[in-house]
Amino acid sequence: MLGSIGYFNGNQSVTSPGMASPKWYGPLEMLSAVPSRPVFPRPFLWDDGFHNLVIQRWNSSLTLKIMNSWFNIMNIDGWIPLEIVIGSESVAKHGTIHTQPDTDSNPPSFLLTIDTIMRNKQMDVQSLKDIYPRLKAWFHWYNTTQSGELSSTYRWRGRGANKDNRELNPDTMSSGLDDYPRATHPTDKEYHLDLRCWIWLAADIMSRIANVVGDSHMSGQYIETADLLADNSLLERLH
C-alpha cells in the first residue's frame, strides 16, 4: 500500500454543462495512493479514502497530507474529480486525455477516514477546523447536485449506455460500484439506495465534526438530515 503512494502534477481536462468544450483545470498537485501501479497508476477519490483507512494506522500524519491534497483540488462549488489523470505516467497509461465532468464524483469515503482518525484521537481540533470549510462545501455538493426528483432521494450522475450498445447494464462509474445491477435504461427518475446511504453516513459524521469544531448550528442541521434519511418508514415507501 505504501509503495503505491505517488506525487502527481499537471492539468486535468474538465467539462461542465455550461461549457462549449472541455477546459484545463489546474495546475494541480496530488499526493495519493493508487489502486494499481501497472494498471491504474492514477489517483481515484473513493479508492484513496479506503487506502487511507490502512495508511492512517501506520502514519496518520501522512494520511492528513494525502487528504489535504485532495481537498486542495476542490473547486468553488465543492466538487472533487472522481479520478485524476495528470502526470506523464498516468496520461501514458490511459492513452488519451481523460475529461472529467464536474457533475460526477465518487462516494465521500474520506469521511470514513476522518471519522476513524477522530475516534483514535489522532486528529487535533485545529486540523479539523482547517479542513472543515471544505468538508461543508463537499457535503453540500453531494446533497444538492446528486439529489433525485423526489425529496430525500438521490441519484448518481454519469449513468449512460455504452457507446457500442453491448452493455445490458450501463456502468455507474461515479458510484464506485461500476457494474452494480441498476436500471437498464437510465433516466432522471431513478433514485439510488447506495447514494442515500452515503449521504446518511456523511451527514452523521459531519454532525460530529461540526460539534468538535464548535459549529452547533450546522451540527443540528446535519443531525436532522441524518435522522430523515434513517427513517425506515420513508425508506420503505421510496425504495
TrEMBL record:
Any one GO molecular function term: Glc3Man9GlcNAc2 oligosaccharide glucosidase activity
Subcellular location as annotated: Endoplasmic reticulum membrane
Stretch forming the signal peptide: none
Single GO cellular component term: endoplasmic reticulum membrane
Membrane topology: Single-pass type II membrane protein
Enzyme class name: hydrolase
ATP-binding among keywords: no
InterPro entries for the chain: 6-hairpin_glycosidase_sf, 6hp_glycosidase-like_sf, Glyco_hydro_63_C, Glycoside_hydrolase_63
The keyword Endoplasmic reticulum is annotated on this UniProt entry: yes
Superkingdom classification of source: Eukaryota
UniProt cross-references to Pfam families, sorted A to Z: Glyco_hydro_63
Record-level GO BP terms: oligosaccharide metabolic process; protein N-linked glycosylation
Domain Glycosyl hydrolase family 63 C-terminal, residue spans: 1-239
Region annotated Disordered, chain positions: 161-181
Record keywords, A-Z: Endoplasmic reticulum, Glycoprotein, Glycosidase, Hydrolase, Membrane, Signal-anchor, Transmembrane, Transmembrane helix
EC number(s) on file: 3.2.1.106
Recorded family membership: Belongs to the glycosyl hydrolase 63 family.
Protein's name according to its UniProt entry: mannosyl-oligosaccharide glucosidase
